[in-house]
């Protein structure tokens, strides 16, 4: 009696030994088929989740920000379309799932935008000059303060 079963083209032991965890920065080389040809494409980012341990359906989620837009991609750990996974950095994290990173990035952008002082365009400056030349006076806080001081000294 012969038993036949299909094995995965992926070296499962090698993928298990990677020890992927949330907080690692990785570069995933995936095979992409276009017009009958196969090429390798790198996807580099932060692992925000690893699910299902080392079983056959294990996955890991990689997040990256490209052109100011956050992108996430879920990779099956034992996919034959993944050529190799390079670990670039390893950060110590206190959480197994880093989903809060999604909101954190948006909060940081909003915080940075608050501090930005929007410069006036030359068009606005030209309008101000025209108002001054027409005889329209623009009050400034300094002039208002001087008037108040004069009023106090008369009393």
From TrEMBL:
<keyword id="KW-0687">Ribonucleoprotein</keyword>
<comment type="function">
    <text>This protein is located at the 30S-50S ribosomal subunit interface and may play a role in the structure and function of the aminoacyl-tRNA binding site.</text>
</comment>
<dbReference type="InterPro" id="IPR008991">
    <property type="entry name" value="Translation_prot_SH3-like_sf"/>
</dbReference>
<dbReference type="InterPro" id="IPR038657">
    <property type="entry name" value="Ribosomal_bL19_sf"/>
</dbReference>
<comment type="similarity">
    <text>Belongs to the bacterial ribosomal protein bL19 family.</text>
</comment>
<dbReference type="InterPro" id="IPR001857">
    <property type="entry name" value="Ribosomal_bL19"/>
</dbReference>
<dbReference type="GO" id="GO:0006412">
    <property type="term" value="P:translation"/>
</dbReference>
<dbReference type="InterPro" id="IPR018257">
    <property type="entry name" value="Ribosomal_bL19_CS"/>
</dbReference>
<protein>
    <recommendedName>
        <fullName>50S ribosomal protein L19</fullName>
    </recommendedName>
</protein>
<dbReference type="GO" id="GO:0022625">
    <property type="term" value="C:cytosolic large ribosomal subunit"/>
</dbReference>
<keyword id="KW-0689">Ribosomal protein</keyword>
<dbReference type="GO" id="GO:0003735">
    <property type="term" value="F:structural constituent of ribosome"/>
</dbReference>
<dbReference type="Pfam" id="PF01245">
    <property type="entry name" value="Ribosomal_L19"/>
</dbReference>
